[in-house]
Amino acid sequence: MDILIIILRIIFGLFFAYAGFMHFKKPKFFNGFIPNFLPKLTVNYVFGFIEIILGIGFFLNQITKSAALGVFVLLLLFLPIHIWDLTKKRPAIGSKKLAIIRIPLQFLLMYCTYLIYINS
Question: Whole-prediction pTM value?
């Protein structure tokens, strides 16, 4: 199990740090995921920063458990947004098929962060 956790930490660390960076590099891409009543650019940058910090946290033994918990909460917060995106005529993710796939994938990612959390 130890090697699986190390691999998951590397994957999650790289994925979330990169995703956070992309919030700054291509902020317009994320506009469709942010509800209109929220300040899109501010929300985008805040969550991008959070994702970068949490991604880096997976590489630091002292805070891996906190990073995993943070990502779990983040994924939980994003779940309603992904469900809302699925209900739209044209999902921000690109297609209905991708929007449908993303929901169970979200639960898989949450499970993986749980594994990292309990094994760190």
Answer: 0.91
Write down the domain spans for the chain: 2-118
Distance from C-alpha of 19 to C-alpha of 113, rounded to nearest angstrom = 16
Mean pLDDT of 32-59: 95
Q: What angle do CA 55, 61, 63 make, to 5 degrees?
A: 60
Tokens of 62: 């002292």
In the predicted structure, residue 94 carries a pLDDT above the cut 90: no
Tell me phi and psi for residue 37, to 5 degrees. Answer: -75, -5
Q: Count CB neighbours of 109 within 10 A.
A: 19
Q: String of b and e for 18-42 (b: at least 16 CB within 10 Å)?
A: ebbeebeeeeeebeebbeeeeebee
